[in-house]
Amino acid sequence: MSKVILLDSAPVGLITNPKATPLAVQCQQWFLSLSQRGYQVILPEIID
């Protein structure tokens, strides 16, 4: 079974935030850990 995460614009905004707020850093670390844990990340085209 595949593990999939579908991200909305709020977490994507935190992940791509150039300002290193504590919440943005925490979200970036979480995002980077997903591939190590076997998750596939999907971004809806509407976020672009």
Structure, described:
A two-stranded parallel sheet has the order 1-2. The chain is built from two helices and two strands. Helices cover 46% and strands 17% of the residues. The chain has helices spanning 9-15, 22-36; strands at residues 3-6, 39-42. By secondary structure, it is an alpha+beta fold. The model has no long low-confidence stretch (mean pLDDT 90).
Question: What is the N-to-C succession of helices and strands?
Answer: EHHE
Let me know the number of strands: 2
* Rg (C-alpha, Å): 11 Å
Largest sheet: 2 strands, parallel
Looking at this protein, list some descriptive labels:
2 helices; alpha+beta; 48 residues; flat; 2 strands
